[in-house]
Amino acid sequence: MPHTLMPTLLAVMTPFPYQIDSEASLESARQLMAQHSIHHLAVTESGVLESIVSSRDIQASHFHNAQDDAGLTVGDVCPPRAYIADCHDPLDQILEAMATTHIGAVLVTRDGELVGIFTLQDACRMLAALLRTQHPDTPP
Question: Pairing relation of β-strands 40-45 and 19-21?
């Protein structure tokens, strides 16, 4: 059996993820996510990559906040840090880290600059494609 190299994040990430400033309103984040049918946004502060916010983070803030969330910003609800990986990191290590730490998305950088995002949905699509190549005769 020929030896193949472990794929890296570069091979499976979604390039050019959408970003939002930490001072933006939650409504702005909701609208951006809805407009692009996405569930995660990279969060920047003064142009510097800081974190990630998910639709679940925003939804949870609404339920945990007795008052209207109109005054809250993205920075108020996103985690203090995101899992950030280099685009050349081996995929098996990233998947293991995601499973171990229970995170749904990884921000992908190259030379410190944001170049992509890798989510559980990306992992599922990749696994489905791999299974189809290994079992091509299975009926749909």
Answer: parallel
Strands 48-54 and 84-86: unpaired
With tokens 């030896």, the residue in question is 3
Within 10 A of 90 (CB to CB), how many other CB atoms are there? 14
Q: What pTM did the predictor assign?
A: 0.85
What element of type H or E holds 80? none
- Residue 23's nearest CA partner among 101, 100, 77 is 77
User: pLDDT grade, residue 66 (50/70/90)?
Assistant: very low
pLDDT above 80: residue 22: yes
Distance of CA 93 to the CA centre of its chain: 16
Three-state secondary structure call for residue 31: helix
Amino acid letter, residue 26: L
Paired sense of beta strands 84-86 and 105-110, if any: parallel
Amino acid letter, residue 85: A
